[in-house]
Amino acid sequence: MKDSYLLGNRQGDSNRVTGYLVRHHYLGDMESISQSKKVRRWSYNLRDLYGPTNIVSTTTDLLKFAQALDRYKLLDKKLLSQAFTSCRLNDGAEAMPGGEFGPAGYGMGWFLPVNNLGKMVMHTGREPGFFTFFWHDITHHRTLILLDNAESSGFGSACKEVFNIVYNVSNFKLAPPGKQSLFLPYARILFKEGPDAAATFYNRLKMDTLHYFADERELNELGLELLDDHRDLEALEALKLCTLLYPQSWNTYDSYGKALQQIGKKKEAIEMYRKSVEMFPGNLPGKKFLMN
């Protein structure tokens, strides 16, 4: 496994990819994790952890790892058997956390999928800008490895489709197209065509709950993305709508106050921050603003 190493132990590896995240969802543009302010706490504070993250590898090396497991080069047969056996809870029941990829037990660091295709172990991985999938069929010595270095909502579906194709089964039923976001196209129209066009779009579809969903957090995040890009008027419109739609949420007033503060409307910002803090006394940034 010559291309596998601990991050930081090999400088100047021109073959190593960087991870990419969606910078702002209303634009759909990507940025590398090295440039992203969103993940600095992760990329800066957690770079000295090794094991759950910060290990560089390739699909070829990971296949060698799987083959070495099968040949007991890394762990002897007894210890490997223990690792591939589900843990038991205090009441004696088998630990079955399950997850996106169906019912599964949990051994020593491995998920143990339950199916009739053979003995299998698997694990997934995720950190900002990276997704990994490792599925090892012990019975047939077959391994599925998928790696992605860009944020994608379709990675899990891709893994399931690969499994179905390789095994010529339909173990994983692909979910039918679900409801669409109402606020994402709203924010895009707000950005491109202005508040009147966006309001018209929203009012036309807001009752169509069969095809669209509305999520407070998403609208709030889209408004803050616009604010981060200094699209102040558009951000104010989105965050104002958020306070009107979700008046019981302290966070909507906090975000709206931030937008008002950014454009210099201090009086209105104080009022919004005050309301936010009254609803949630734990809002320390809001308290700090009011104290100043």
From TrEMBL:
Lineage summary: Bacteria, Pseudomonadati, Bacteroidota, Sphingobacteriia, Sphingobacteriales
PROSITE patterns xref list: TPR (PS50005)
Segments annotated as TPR repeats: 250-283
Keywords, comma-separated and alphabetical: TPR repeat
Sequence ranges assigned to domain Beta-lactamase-related in this UniProt record: 44-152
Protein name per Swiss-Prot or TrEMBL: Beta-lactamase
UniProt-listed Gene3D superfamilies: DD-peptidase/beta-lactamase superfamily, Tetratricopeptide repeat domain
Pfam families linked: Beta-lactamase (PF00144)
Coiled coil: none
InterPro entries hit by this protein: Beta-lactam-related, Beta-lactam/transpept-like, TPR-like_helical_dom_sf, TPR_rpt
